[in-house]
Amino acid sequence: MKLTRKKLFIFAGILLLIAGCCGVYFGVYLPRKNAAQASDKKTENNDDMDRTFKVRRDDLVIGLQQGGYINASKKHKLALQANHRTKLIWVIDENTKIKKGDLLAKFETDDLLEKIENFEIEQDNLSKELDLAKENYRVILSENAAALQDAEEKLSQADDALRKYRRFERINKRDSLELAITEAEDALKTEEDTYREARDKQYEATSTQNAEEVRQAALDKQQAKIDKAENALSNAEDNFKVFRRYDHPSQLLRLVNAYDQAKLTLQKVRISTESKAIQQRKSMENLRRRVRWVTKQLERYKEYMPMMEWRAPEDGVVIYGDPDRRWGNIDVKLGIEVGRGQVLITIPEMSNLVVDFDLPEQFRSKVQVGNKATITPDSLPGEKFEATISHIATLPVNMVSWDSASPKIYKTKLKLNKQSSKLVNGMSVQIHVVTKVIPKVLFVPIEAVFEENDRFFVYRSGLGGPQEVTVEIGESNDNFVQIKSGLKEDDVVYLYRPYQKSQDGK
């Protein structure tokens, strides 16, 4: 009997537990579930209702979104190469499709032709002046040779006269004077001997004179001869003295001075003739230099003539100015003055287009050469084109070149996987770069995750209403963030702070 009661109690307890569970299910859980479903349905039909997101597991694509533009990898930028300012007198319309060899522009050539004519006249005149200078140089050389020969002959004559005097004339004159002295001495000695003989000789008396008178007369006569001989000797000695003291030094000095003067004259003639030749050679060299300069200018301006007419180097489309230059492009119109290096026309080659964009410095570590990208043109929102990053600049530059405080960017290029005729140079595009794909992970929209005191959390929808749940996040893209823990697949999270909204609605 006791055993039966015990079984009854157990059976009754089980019935009560089942009844309680059913009451909770039908009285609490099911109404709340229906209310939540009704709330979700209202949210779909009314923008003012709560926004939620169901957590799912899928591949999370990590990347970044940037704006860029289509660019031709090769552009023919046509600029005036002539170092000569001129005016544009004709130009083809912009956006015109052209073929290789088509006429693109013409420039004024009147001033250029005038300069060519002036240089031709100047070249002819300078050539004639140079010919005259060459003839004058030959005359100067001939005159210089004659002047040098004359000076050398005079120097040779002066040298011969000096040598002749030193070796012959001086000695002959000296010997002649010494011989005169010797002869005078001999004559004096002879007369003195004759006088002594006359003195010792015995004379006979004559009818009119006695012997003594005769003797005295003979001695007087002989004495006169002695005096004459002495005078001759004195004159000879005086002549020798005059020769040694005056005539010889004076003649020698005159001949030496004549030689030195002739030598100095020869040096002067040499300097003078060489100076004349040098001056003439310099004059000729200046003329040659001017002829070369004028000839070079003439050739240069003649080379400019073909540059005054432009023809298309390749097939393409005409674009005015330089599309790669943000500022300073010239306003292309008839009559404008054009100088060397100013780009007037650009012809991009549409057969090999690339995409250029500025990669912000903060994303440089996430993007590598070889990353895939999707291109969406602004003018073709329904079109998408695949591309690959082909180049990233080594060094960053300022986004605004003249502002050092502007953000740093890396110049980056994308290579299109397939060229398309729908794309044209200069077209603006949106670029979605795929840097990483995380397979089969949980993720939620970024706006569903909140942060407070270094803690990340979400508001999960539950039977009792929104529940704050701490989560661990991983990597993210522009729209979604990876959830490593705290949520499970099919959980529903709010994309706002529901309590705050509730309070705001009160």
Which SSEs are present, and which pair or pack?
Blueprint: H1 2-45, E1 52-54, E2 56-72, E3 75-79, E4 86-91, E5 97-98, E6 103-107, H2 110-200, H3 211-307, E7 309-311, E8 316-317, E9 319-320, E10 337-338, E11 343-348, E12 353-360, E13 372-377, E14 385-392, E15 397-398, E16 408-416, E17 428-445, E18 450-452, E19 455-462, E20 465-470, E21 472-476, E22 480-485, E23 492-494, H4 498-505
Antiparallel strand pairs: 1-23, 2-12, 2-17, 3-11, 4-6, 4-10, 5-8, 6-7, 9-11, 12-16, 13-14, 13-17, 14-16, 15-16, 17-22, 18-19, 19-20, 21-22
Helix pairs in contact: 2-3
Quick summary of this structure?
By secondary structure, the protein is α+β, with helices and mostly antiparallel strands.
Tell me, rounded to a whole number, the average pLDDT: 86
How many helices in DSSP terms?
4
Element string (H = helix, E = strand): HEEEEEEHHEEEEEEEEEEEEEEEEEH
The Cα radius of gyration reads 65 Å
C-alpha geometry: rod-shaped
Helix/strand-derived class?
alpha+beta
Distance between the termini: 64 Å
Q: Could you describe the largest sheet, including whether it forms a barrel?
A: 6 strands, antiparallel, barrel
- The low-confidence runs, each spanning 5 or more residues with pLDDT under 50, are 38-49, 501-506
Report helical residue fraction: 40-55%
Strand content: 25-35%
In total, the number of strands is 23
